[in-house]
DNA sequence: TCACCTCACACTTTTGAAAAGC
DNA sequence: AGCTTTTCAAAAGTGTGAGGTG
């Protein structure tokens, strides 16, 4: 196998003519990624996962945890995660289900979370599940901490990228593969909308133990009463004004028959399996999760995360329309493509996606074609319009990483100006059409996303260019 | 008025430095 | 002296619910 060093050398040649064909690193297509705790994810997914986003940043729960195999033990890899909008809509919670509430807001700056262990040899990644526990989500578009910025009431799903690279400098010249898992999609919220989700979180998140009804919760409430009688009096007053007894109101499990209420809710959560996305049944979800595996339902265990994306199309430069995990195309989708498309999800033409101002990027046709009311109460078709926009990894961070950051999480920022500026006129020369798909790629892997970052070799200039060309919408 | 967001709170787990033991 | 284990306080991560905002 050609070493990554050789690959780097080849790719560093400035001329597009020098762009090598697919290197032997395509053999890395053996990489397999499996989502850990799929049952937990599934239980959330069936109800409609919500993730809290806050100004200071909030961790995900369940958090992203994956297992990797098929890596070259001695080769170094970098693991990245980013969040991709599911569609071009904004949602609202109406009674007991999510409804489309209009077009999505312009996408905030795209950021990528780099696993703090990166870069590490394949043996390191494979020896145990890899957790992205410390990844945080925020709704603060001016966030300085590098958290992943999302819009509330919008739907996203995480995407995992694995890049064979000795260090962050090499990323741009390296092959990377992308994986997604349909069950990890979620709605970003600032406060939980679906009480079933709240309950699931409380039941499974150790930090929320205090809210469980197994004794400590009541103790907590009692303490609170003692600690701040004034507050409680105030609260009681306000509740009286609303005409409900203070101890029963508000809480999903009031003092009155709390156990029964809880039992009832548990039954609802476990048994009802209702989907806020238009009544998708468990069977349907299972079917969807399984049937999208290119290897069929039986392959889910073995190839739990392999995905289905037409290999050819993903090689189109600057766009990645087929990626659209919507409808989720497999248990996890992996795609193979050029470095010019990672955040792909566009219905618009690739040229339209390169508008110079991300804030004004029009929502795609899809959202225009399909009136919200027609979509309401149903899970919108994933292919629904996406906005394209691109981003640039903040390489100043990457640069510092190699020397200073050590084992701290690195977030790569995709600034709007950078992103669009660079797309503005450079790419044709800068990002020549990628080579044809590897002829020796096994059928299975032709469906994966394998991106090549074809960039110029001048390291001093590389911060101008994206690690991934981002089309987040 | 309403939908959404922010904040302080109580409670929990995690982290890391200091102390103790070997 | 050096290493490992234990202890404990501080920090960080939770959902709650009142109040704020547009």
Automatic annotation (TrEMBL):
Database matches in SMART domains: TBOX
Main location (coarse class): nucleus
Ranges of compositional bias, category Basic and acidic residues: 255-273
T-box domain residues: 35-213
Record-linked Gene3D superfamilies: Transcription factor, T-box
One Pfam family named in its UniProt record: T-box
Biased composition annotated in UniProt, kind: Low complexity: 326-344
Disordered: annotated segments: 1-22, 211-282, 318-344
Protein name: T-box transcription factor 16
